[in-house]
Design a protein that fits this description.
With about 200 residues, the protein is α+β, with helices and mostly antiparallel strands. It contains one helix and eight strands, in the order αββββββββ. It has one helix spanning about 1-50, and strands spanning about 80-85, 85-95, 100-110, 140, 145-150, 175-180, 190-195, 200-205. A hairpin with a 3-residue loop joins β2 (about 85-95) and β3.
Length: about 200
Protein backbone atom coordinates (compact mmCIF):
# COMPACT_ATOMS: atom_id res chain seq x y z
CA UNK A 1 0.00 0.00 0.00
CA UNK A 2 2.84 2.30 0.80
CA UNK A 3 4.49 1.41 -2.51
CA UNK A 4 1.36 2.38 -4.44
CA UNK A 5 1.10 5.62 -2.58
CA UNK A 6 4.73 6.33 -3.28
CA UNK A 7 4.21 5.63 -6.99
CA UNK A 8 1.16 7.83 -7.07
CA UNK A 9 3.05 10.61 -5.39
CA UNK A 10 5.97 10.13 -7.79
CA UNK A 11 3.63 10.31 -10.77
CA UNK A 12 2.04 13.51 -9.44
CA UNK A 13 5.44 15.04 -8.88
CA UNK A 14 6.55 14.15 -12.43
CA UNK A 15 3.32 15.55 -13.88
CA UNK A 16 3.70 18.70 -11.82
CA UNK A 17 7.32 19.11 -12.92
CA UNK A 18 6.34 18.56 -16.54
CA UNK A 19 3.59 21.16 -16.31
CA UNK A 20 5.98 23.60 -14.66
CA UNK A 21 8.54 22.93 -17.39
CA UNK A 22 5.98 23.61 -20.10
CA UNK A 23 4.94 26.86 -18.42
CA UNK A 24 8.59 27.91 -18.06
CA UNK A 25 9.30 27.17 -21.76
CA UNK A 26 6.22 29.08 -22.79
CA UNK A 27 7.29 32.04 -20.67
CA UNK A 28 10.76 32.04 -22.19
CA UNK A 29 9.31 31.83 -25.66
CA UNK A 30 7.06 34.80 -24.95
CA UNK A 31 10.01 36.81 -23.67
CA UNK A 32 11.97 36.03 -26.79
CA UNK A 33 9.08 37.22 -28.91
CA UNK A 34 9.03 40.55 -27.08
CA UNK A 35 12.77 40.92 -27.63
CA UNK A 36 12.29 40.29 -31.33
CA UNK A 37 9.49 42.82 -31.41
CA UNK A 38 11.66 45.36 -29.60
CA UNK A 39 14.44 44.69 -32.09
CA UNK A 40 12.08 45.19 -35.01
CA UNK A 41 10.73 48.40 -33.48
CA UNK A 42 14.29 49.61 -32.94
CA UNK A 43 15.16 48.89 -36.56
CA UNK A 44 12.01 50.63 -37.75
CA UNK A 45 12.78 53.62 -35.54
CA UNK A 46 16.31 53.74 -36.91
CA UNK A 47 14.96 53.67 -40.46
CA UNK A 48 12.52 56.46 -39.66
CA UNK A 49 15.19 58.65 -38.04
CA UNK A 50 16.69 61.11 -40.56
CA UNK A 51 20.34 60.70 -41.36
CA UNK A 52 22.78 63.24 -40.01
CA UNK A 53 22.64 66.36 -42.15
CA UNK A 54 19.05 65.82 -43.25
CA UNK A 55 16.07 67.85 -42.08
CA UNK A 56 13.05 66.18 -40.52
CA UNK A 57 10.99 67.12 -43.54
CA UNK A 58 13.29 65.15 -45.81
CA UNK A 59 15.25 68.15 -47.02
CA UNK A 60 19.02 68.21 -47.18
CA UNK A 61 20.84 69.39 -44.09
CA UNK A 62 23.20 72.27 -43.71
CA UNK A 63 22.50 75.92 -44.32
CA UNK A 64 19.51 76.62 -46.48
CA UNK A 65 20.39 78.11 -49.79
CA UNK A 66 18.99 81.58 -50.16
CA UNK A 67 18.07 82.42 -53.71
CA UNK A 68 19.96 85.34 -55.05
CA UNK A 69 17.68 88.34 -54.57
CA UNK A 70 17.47 91.00 -57.20
CA UNK A 71 19.54 93.83 -55.88
CA UNK A 72 17.97 97.21 -56.32
CA UNK A 73 19.82 99.26 -58.87
CA UNK A 74 20.84 102.71 -57.68
CA UNK A 75 18.59 105.45 -58.98
CA UNK A 76 19.85 107.29 -62.04
CA UNK A 77 21.23 110.69 -61.14
CA UNK A 78 19.86 113.26 -63.55
CA UNK A 79 21.31 116.32 -61.81
CA UNK A 80 22.79 117.45 -58.50
CA UNK A 81 23.36 120.92 -57.08
CA UNK A 82 24.72 122.19 -53.76
CA UNK A 83 23.65 125.53 -52.36
CA UNK A 84 22.33 127.22 -49.26
CA UNK A 85 23.86 126.05 -45.98
CA UNK A 86 25.58 122.92 -47.38
CA UNK A 87 22.32 121.53 -48.77
CA UNK A 88 22.60 119.14 -51.73
CA UNK A 89 19.62 118.60 -54.00
CA UNK A 90 19.68 115.53 -56.24
CA UNK A 91 17.19 114.73 -59.02
CA UNK A 92 16.73 111.07 -59.95
CA UNK A 93 13.48 111.03 -61.92
CA UNK A 94 11.60 113.39 -64.24
CA UNK A 95 8.77 111.71 -66.14
CA UNK A 96 5.54 112.63 -67.83
CA UNK A 97 2.53 110.96 -66.20
CA UNK A 98 -0.89 110.02 -67.49
CA UNK A 99 -3.28 112.89 -66.77
CA UNK A 100 -1.05 115.64 -68.16
CA UNK A 101 1.49 116.32 -65.44
CA UNK A 102 5.23 116.00 -64.84
CA UNK A 103 6.61 114.23 -61.76
CA UNK A 104 10.09 115.12 -60.52
CA UNK A 105 11.72 113.13 -57.71
CA UNK A 106 15.03 113.09 -55.87
CA UNK A 107 16.70 113.52 -52.50
CA UNK A 108 17.81 116.38 -50.23
CA UNK A 109 20.93 115.95 -48.10
CA UNK A 110 21.79 118.19 -45.19
CA UNK A 111 25.57 118.45 -45.12
CA UNK A 112 25.54 121.02 -42.32
CA UNK A 113 26.10 120.69 -38.60
CA UNK A 114 22.54 121.25 -37.41
CA UNK A 115 18.92 120.65 -38.34
CA UNK A 116 18.02 122.67 -41.41
CA UNK A 117 14.71 124.46 -41.73
CA UNK A 118 13.55 127.12 -44.15
CA UNK A 119 10.27 128.55 -45.38
CA UNK A 120 11.89 130.00 -48.51
CA UNK A 121 11.26 126.73 -50.32
CA UNK A 122 7.51 127.28 -49.98
CA UNK A 123 7.81 130.20 -52.43
CA UNK A 124 6.36 133.71 -52.40
CA UNK A 125 2.79 132.78 -53.35
CA UNK A 126 0.37 133.55 -50.55
CA UNK A 127 -1.76 130.58 -51.62
CA UNK A 128 1.14 128.22 -50.86
CA UNK A 129 2.35 129.82 -47.62
CA UNK A 130 0.56 127.23 -45.46
CA UNK A 131 2.77 124.47 -46.84
CA UNK A 132 5.66 125.52 -44.63
CA UNK A 133 9.03 123.85 -45.26
CA UNK A 134 8.25 121.98 -48.47
CA UNK A 135 8.86 121.82 -52.21
CA UNK A 136 5.85 124.12 -52.77
CA UNK A 137 7.96 126.91 -54.26
CA UNK A 138 9.69 124.69 -56.84
CA UNK A 139 9.31 125.40 -60.54
CA UNK A 140 10.50 124.10 -63.90
CA UNK A 141 11.41 126.34 -66.80
CA UNK A 142 11.16 125.13 -70.39
CA UNK A 143 13.48 127.45 -72.28
CA UNK A 144 12.42 126.04 -75.65
CA UNK A 145 8.85 127.08 -74.91
CA UNK A 146 9.70 130.19 -72.94
CA UNK A 147 7.41 128.97 -70.15
CA UNK A 148 7.73 128.58 -66.41
CA UNK A 149 5.65 125.86 -64.74
CA UNK A 150 4.65 126.19 -61.08
CA UNK A 151 3.85 123.42 -58.65
CA UNK A 152 0.44 121.81 -58.89
CA UNK A 153 -1.84 122.34 -55.90
CA UNK A 154 -5.33 121.40 -54.76
CA UNK A 155 -8.21 123.82 -54.18
CA UNK A 156 -7.11 124.44 -50.57
CA UNK A 157 -3.59 125.43 -51.60
CA UNK A 158 -1.90 122.18 -50.60
CA UNK A 159 0.93 121.47 -53.01
CA UNK A 160 1.32 118.16 -54.79
CA UNK A 161 4.78 117.84 -53.31
CA UNK A 162 6.80 116.75 -50.28
CA UNK A 163 6.71 118.60 -46.98
CA UNK A 164 9.71 118.34 -44.63
CA UNK A 165 7.94 119.01 -41.35
CA UNK A 166 10.15 120.50 -38.67
CA UNK A 167 13.35 120.23 -40.69
CA UNK A 168 16.06 117.92 -42.00
CA UNK A 169 18.57 116.69 -39.41
CA UNK A 170 22.31 117.11 -39.87
CA UNK A 171 23.73 114.39 -42.14
CA UNK A 172 20.29 113.13 -43.16
CA UNK A 173 19.17 112.38 -46.71
CA UNK A 174 15.43 112.50 -47.35
CA UNK A 175 13.41 111.78 -50.51
CA UNK A 176 11.14 114.33 -52.16
CA UNK A 177 8.76 114.67 -55.10
CA UNK A 178 7.04 117.54 -56.86
CA UNK A 179 4.42 117.59 -59.63
CA UNK A 180 3.94 120.22 -62.34
CA UNK A 181 1.80 120.69 -65.42
CA UNK A 182 3.24 118.67 -68.28
CA UNK A 183 5.44 120.67 -70.69
CA UNK A 184 4.70 120.55 -74.39
CA UNK A 185 5.26 117.24 -76.15
CA UNK A 186 8.41 118.30 -77.94
CA UNK A 187 10.12 119.59 -74.82
CA UNK A 188 12.88 117.26 -73.64
CA UNK A 189 14.87 119.51 -71.31
CA UNK A 190 13.84 121.75 -68.43
CA UNK A 191 15.50 123.65 -65.61
CA UNK A 192 14.41 122.83 -62.06
CA UNK A 193 14.77 125.28 -59.18
CA UNK A 194 13.59 125.70 -55.59
CA UNK A 195 14.37 128.40 -53.02
CA UNK A 196 17.86 129.87 -53.40
CA UNK A 197 19.33 126.65 -54.76
CA UNK A 198 21.13 126.85 -58.12
CA UNK A 199 18.99 125.71 -61.08
CA UNK A 200 19.47 122.13 -62.22
CA UNK A 201 19.05 121.19 -65.89
CA UNK A 202 17.35 117.82 -66.39
CA UNK A 203 16.12 115.66 -69.24
CA UNK A 204 12.48 114.62 -69.02
CA UNK A 205 10.82 111.54 -70.46
Amino acid sequence: MDLRENKSRLILIVVALGAALVIAVASCGGGGGDDDGDARESEESADATPDDGANADGGEGGDEETPDGDEEEPAELLAEVTGEESITLAITRAEREAGGFLTVEGTVTNGGDGTWFTTRWAGPERELSENGFSMAGASVVANEEGKRYLILRDTSGRCLCTGFGTGIEAGATVPWFAQFPEPEEGTAEVSFQVGNMPPATIQIR
